[in-house]
Amino acid sequence: MTDTLFSYTDAEEVTLFVDLVLPIPVPRLFTYRVKRDMAALIKIGARVIVPFGKSRVITAVVASLHNHPPQNYQARYVLELLDEYPLVTGYQLQLFAWMAEYYMCCIGEVMNVALPSGLKITSQSKVQYNPDFEHPDLLTPQEVTLMEDLKKHPSLSYEELGRLVGEVNVPTLIKSLVGKRAVIVFDEVKEKYVPKMVRKVRLHRNYEQPEQLLALLQRLDKLPKQQEVVMRYLRHVPMQRNPALNEQGLEKGILNQDDELSQSSLGTLVKNGVFETFELIQPRFSDTFSPQKEIVLTAAQRTASDSIMAEFAQKNIVLFHGITGSGKTEVYIDLIQKVLAGGSQVMYLLPEIALTTQIVVRLQKVFGDKMGIYHSKFSDNERVEVWKGVVSGQFQFVIGVRSAVFLPFDNLGLIIVDEEHETSYKQHDPAPRYHARDVAMMLAHWQQAKVLLGSATPSIETYYQAKQGRYGLVELFQRYGDANLPFISLINTKQEKKQKTMKNEFSSALYNALADNLERGEQSILFQNRRGYSPYLQCEDCEWTSQCLNCAVSLTYHQRAAELRCHYCGHKEDVPKVCPTCGSTKVRTVGYGTEKLEDQLQILFPAARIQRMDLDTTRAKNAYQQIISEFEHGNVDILVGTQMITKGLDFDNVSLVGIFDADRIIRWPEFRATERAFQMMTQVSGRAGRRADRQGRVLIQTSDPSQVVLQKIIDNDYLGLYDEEIVERRDFNYPPFSRLIKLTVRHTDQRVSKKAADVLCASLAAQLGDERVLGPEQPLVERIRNQFLYDILIKLEREKINFKAVKAFIQSCITDILTDKGLRAVSVIIDVDCL
DNA sequence: AGCACGCCGACT
DNA sequence: GTCGGCGTGCTC
């Protein structure tokens, strides 16, 4: 500014602007004005509420503060400042920006998956009564009446709230209520938190004083049943000594003790006004933890832990390669304790399925309420609590799934990525399509934290880095408690079919083994990685098969639900009684899903108790836990399941694992198929024989036992697998020797989709060269939800490539397509480091 | 992503 | 004559 003469007055008049991250898929920040009274309080990383577009109000995060008024438009005002202390750290903003750049998406898309929806108040969000609300005394009179309304309604929308309170500023009101933890905010789309209610009873006020109580008991002398109920109540609520205890009452269930007589007596007492019933919302955080348990490491575990520490002195990333059942968890606990004692934070990542199991319980016993759990099965409100707990310092240690990398850590000392090879660490559907393992490494790099990658079957990429010396490597090949590795054998189904010894698709070997196990009272697990009853229906008289209308896949037959389902778009239809084409009644099921296996096993072994575990049986809230505990308590003889059973289940009594169809796992049309097959089958095998006193057995059904990977699985020969795979990867320039970016072009008109893909491919290849650009090619499922898909795969060697520049070029090619008149309607999905 | 604006078909 | 279909374009 040239106008220095008046700068002393200007200094006070300068308008403050903020650049905000909005949860909107637009590749830029948005500038808003800040009113003077807010200017002193607003900070980078704080959330604000702003008006956006014609009729929306949304939550944004402050990315920067400045005083440059925008040139081409008038900035609008920030409506409300939500956080006096930022809920988003500088590291997180750095992470958001990095992810948007690296994974080629918008920073708003990153923010959208990063923040739990409870932290994003918008004009679309709803509020409900917080079951854990503790301080009604803080409310203003207006808020008190509003809370009464909220108690009556399950939830209120933004508009409804506005109508109820009249002229008051709704965002301000919500801010106030959220701040007092009186309400919780949730996303209408997602399922809201359903508070658990307890039914309680208490004595009527008239009987609270000792003399009144005594009179009551005397009056009930002639009614012994009712007298007994009152006595029982007094035993649990000793109000003779302290009448105030009556206020809290007693749970109805405890008083009733499930006998009908006391129930009817209680009913009479309630009717006569002696007792009154009321309901209370059960607080969720009422668990108590057992005291800290001492963890004693075995010699091998001790050595491993020490070696990891030693490696960390040299390297920032260490691969901990330990076979299944070697007791990696104890080693982790040891390391976590060390890092926490040093005052740093720890993040422990696990794939979704593994997190639901015993590991959490085990860690909770050690770390108690200092440990936060970040899991998708938890309600959004609980995620918000974990987030705030990390900011406040309550949680120095969090165990969580993929999305835990977004938590506001600022002082990480250690990140553990367990089951490092798991593909579920890569987010597939909404952008950002990030890999939590890689993001974790970035976070660690910024915060000078160490990363421990754990796996029994490391990904080829990771093992390569370890071999190259870029990562430290610690291996633990001794099974915990000297349990033996299972004995794995192959069953040639082709041969058995020739000899006619198969029972349906069960080989005699598998059948006999299952029968033996049943007889001995030992448990078995049968693995089949396909849910439903059968992958499709087929007419025997014509060519008809069940096909999805919207996708190029067959409809899977689900017998239990009595419907045909598309596993891609979710479309459901009734099962036809006759062939829809020719009217024939000979419609048969083809192929085997877990449901059919369950059925056939029941026919083969009528006395066996069989349980199925797949997506369909575990959808309900606690179904997963229930199945596991049933199995654990020996109430199940044979557990049939998909991938879900491969992880984290440690059961003593399982002595047999059957892999129903190995061929299907091996012959996946993908360059990682062999690696996957090895990982998957090794993991399932690990479920067998986790006890020292006998060796578990694994039977693998295959039509071709000579397949190389099978022998490697039998020999538990990870190194052999690695040596072969790495050669192929090098020869064909696949990861770790290259990076892959997959572009998927989508449109409802196949010709448009194809044209766009061709044009895109040509412009990419013109610059990058034919050998780096593959396709366009129709994916395995060429049409999903009536959109025709074409894939383009870009291979970029690690050396001598300016990754950033290439990505910018790719982006420009896509922009060209999307501005082309005839092709602009297509959408292009970008997947960096696709799996 | 939402949301409005805008320009063409089957309905009271 | 309108209601509403979803194509296109914009949001500080």
UniProtKB/TrEMBL annotation:
Cofactor note: Binds 2 zinc ions per subunit.
SUPFAM superfamilies, per database record: P-loop containing nucleoside triphosphate hydrolases
Cross-referenced SMART domains: DEXDc (SM00487), HELICc (SM00490)
Gene3D superfamilies: P-loop containing nucleotide triphosphate hydrolases, PriA, 3(prime) DNA-binding domain
Chemical reaction(s) catalysed: Couples ATP hydrolysis with the unwinding of duplex DNA by translocating in the 3'-5' direction; ATP + H2O = ADP + phosphate + H(+)
Limits of the Helicase C-terminal domain: 574-733
Binding site for Zn(2+) 2: C548, C551, C566, C569
Signal peptide from the UniProt entry: none
InterPro entries membership: DEAD/DEAH_box_helicase_dom, Helicase_ATP-bd, Helicase_C-like, P-loop_NTPase, PriA, PriA_3primeBD, PriA_3primeBD_sf, PriA_C
Keywords assigned by UniProt, alphabetized: ATP-binding, DNA replication, DNA-binding, Helicase, Hydrolase, Isomerase, Metal-binding, Nucleotide-binding, Primosome, Zinc
EC number: 5.6.2.4
Enzyme class, broadest EC rank: isomerase
Keyword Membrane: no
Required cofactor names: Zn(2+)
Statement: the UniProt record of this protein carries the keyword RNA-binding: no
Oligomer and partners: Component of the replication restart primosome.
Role, per record: Initiates the restart of stalled replication forks, which reloads the replicative helicase on sites other than the origin of replication. Recognizes and binds to abandoned replication forks and remodels them to uncover a helicase loading site. Promotes assembly of the primosome at these replication forks.
Family label: Belongs to the helicase family. PriA subfamily.
Protein name (database record): Replication restart protein PriA
Species of origin: Fibrella forsythiae
